[in-house]
Amino acid sequence: MSRRRGKAVEEEKADIDLTPMLDVVFIMLIFFIVTASFVKEKALDVNVPDPDQTQETPPDTDKQNILLTVNSADEIWMGTSRIDSRAVRARIAQLYAENPQAIVIVRAHNKSSADTYVSIADAAKAVNPNIQVSLVPFDDSKR
Length: 143
Hints:
The chain is an alpha/beta fold and about 140 residues long.
């Protein structure tokens, strides 16, 4: 019987006490929390206008470009008015003087001749050699 008591005592001695290890873990945790440098989160600076201020309307993007339309009969149109091919340069010069950042956009029908586009591009380049001229083809039959 004494042997059985000895085994019971030995089994009790085999248990490991985890309390000191937990104390060390908590002390290390506190040390790292205190010494850690926290990163501040970066936020976006948003400029919100005051509700008392009046809202300014954004600039009209249609005024930034000079739009010329060439139909299938090689007629040059600016808006709702027809322009003679000899007056294209003067009209582009007038609109370019109002807005020097303007781009000349030629909206040409697929059946119009290339000579009309070239004459418009030459007139625009005569106003300013650095002016941009873009060709946008269109076709009426795709409606």
